[in-house]
Design brief:
Radius of gyration: 38 Å
Distance between the termini: 95 Å
Helix content: 55-70%
Number of helices: 3
Oligomer: single chain
Strand content: under 5%
Shape: rod-shaped
Length: 126
């Protein structure tokens, strides 16, 4: 009787050890996977910070202005220059046709130098 009880106790302890080993192995594999994921997240964050710095350089207003002037032939000079607010017509009045203070008024935009830009503007409707 004691032998049978000893056998069952030994079998129970052996199965318990195997179960604990399996749980510890799964935990180790999960920890390795978690570390890989954390390293990938850190690499993505560093890549994002580099891209944000690059975007800040590429999208700088001064650079955009310079590109618009050189590639598109656009400038930030106003099309109509008024010397004072008194020259604006009052509400309900029309501006006199012979007003010499309004110079170079134009309702058309200059055509871009690059024909691909013009085709893209026609295609998109802009």
């Amino acid at each position: 009787m004691i032998r049978i009880l000893n056998f069952f106790c030994f079998a129970f302890v052996a199965l318990s050890c195997l179960a604990l080993y399996q749980v510890s192995e799964k935990t180790r594999l999960a920890e390795v996977s978690l570390n890989e994921t954390n390293h990938a997240i850190a690499a993505q964050h560093s890549a994002m910070s580099v891209l944000e710095a690059e975007w800040g350089r590429v999208a700088a207003p001064a650079r955009i202005q310079r590109l618009a002037e050189t590639r598109l032939g656009l400038s930030d000079a106003p099309a109509v220059e008024l010397s004072s607010l008194e020259l604006l017509p009052r509400r309900g009045e029309s501006a006199p046709l012979g007003n010499s203070n309004v110079r170079n008024a134009s309702a058309t935009a200059p055509q871009p130098r690059d024909p691909r830009i013009r085709l893209a503007a026609i295609h998109t409707g802009n």
